[in-house]
């Protein structure tokens, strides 16, 4: 097995390598003066099972291009099998046409990765499970829920908590967590009138006197979470904590969350934390490296990955 890392999240790649006790393959990814990407794999990968670890996070296009070029380099170096390990699959939110004459960019990106030469994809908490079908190659979609449930179990009592989906689209994810915790479920009915803005409409379910555990796949601007926290507290919730897999946290999101009424935001390390996240008072990071590492190891050994979740 060979583990190759792009530049998007070297800390996670190192942690996965440590978990597997396999060193990262020597490789340089650098830029020419005009910012074209150049890649050189500095070890033989002929006939190897190669896992390329790269989240297509900010700057999304650069990191996507790095991934494509790394795949191309390994393919031309006769890697036997190439798995694109994308802890965070950027562009996933563009999974349907929101209006006429708009693209389905998630499908385009899936095509690019496949045509570059990937044989498999390994990812985590896809924005919508059906994005797996955008890839015509085997795609494993892992879930961060077991990692979050362990943390939640240490900090919350199911009898005084309620699991909350911050929008209708996330109900299936939240219901799954509520069921595993034995806690009730509430839903924030949110309408987004314009891209980049979110508006809370009302709360479905009883949150009065309860600790709310919000769960979602992505926190980007933080607008959804902060608005939902305000609405839940206005309905009598005692406190609101959010567990979100992918901390995209663009622009002023960290400052917005720090100044918000959210007690805590817990994200995973699918996207490398910025300094602002690291020093933030109410943002904490859980590592999914052992989960991803285990899935990589099982894929290499042709063992079941889905059984990680039963
Ligand atoms: C939307 O469907 C996603 O699940 C997230 O709720 C959304 O991407 C969060 O975005 P923001 O933090 O910008 O409100």
Description:
- By secondary structure, the chain is α/β, with parallel strands linked by helices.
- The protein folds into two domains: 2-143 and 290-308, Rossmann fold (3-Layer(aba) Sandwich); 145-286, 3-Layer(aba) Sandwich (Rossmann fold).
- It is 31% helix and 25% strand.
- It has helices at 10-20, 60-76, 105-116, 145-155, 171-181, 223-234, 253-258, 275-279, 289-300, and strands at 2-5, 27-31, 37-41, 49-53, 81-86, 120-124, 139-142, 161-165, 185-191, 199-204, 211-219, 239-247, 264-268, 283-286.
- It has a seven-stranded mixed beta sheet. A five-stranded parallel beta sheet has the order 1-4-5-6-7, sandwiched between helices.
- Strand 2 (27-31) and strand 3 (37-41) form a beta hairpin.
- Helix 2 (60-76) runs parallel beside helix 3 (105-116).
- The longest helix is centred in the first third of the chain and has 17 residues, at 60-76.
- The radius of gyration is 20 Å and the shape is globular.
- 44% of the residues are buried.
- The mean pLDDT is 95.
- The structure holds ribose-5-phosphate.
- Ribose-5-phosphate is lined by residues 93, 166-167, 169-170, 198, 216-224.
